[in-house]
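Hey, can you fold this one?
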Amino acid sequence: MKLTNDDIKCMTLFQQLTGASARDCVVDKESAVFVVSEGELGRAIGKGGSAIMRVRDAFRRRIEVVEYADDPERFVRNIFSAVEIKNLKIDDAGGSKIVHVTVDPRDRGTAIGRNGEKVKMARMLMQRYFGMDLKLF
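Sure. Predicted structure:
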């Protein structure tokens, strides 16, 4: 995984605003996703959401924070922390690993996100960190 100068600048600003250590960031036109070290999620959000609001104001984008985990299953659960995961299975089919995530039908819209952004972000992070694809059911 390679970070650009812009990525490093974004991570530095995030760290200054929240006090949480960022491992990675992905910024696009509408949103920014920060991956923080294990145990740093509370610090990144801040009391009453104050830290995350400072970050949102500074970046002028929708902000998402995901807590990193060494275990792919735990990392997927951290990505989809807002929804209940009914079933999670890692399949090693044909040399490529695929994470199958099943959510409650009522939570499916939340898991997919606006214009599919949440699931796209999840796929990108799983590919980036573990070389796995993700399928949402």
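The longest helix spans residues 5-18. Let me know if you want another pass with a different chain boundary.
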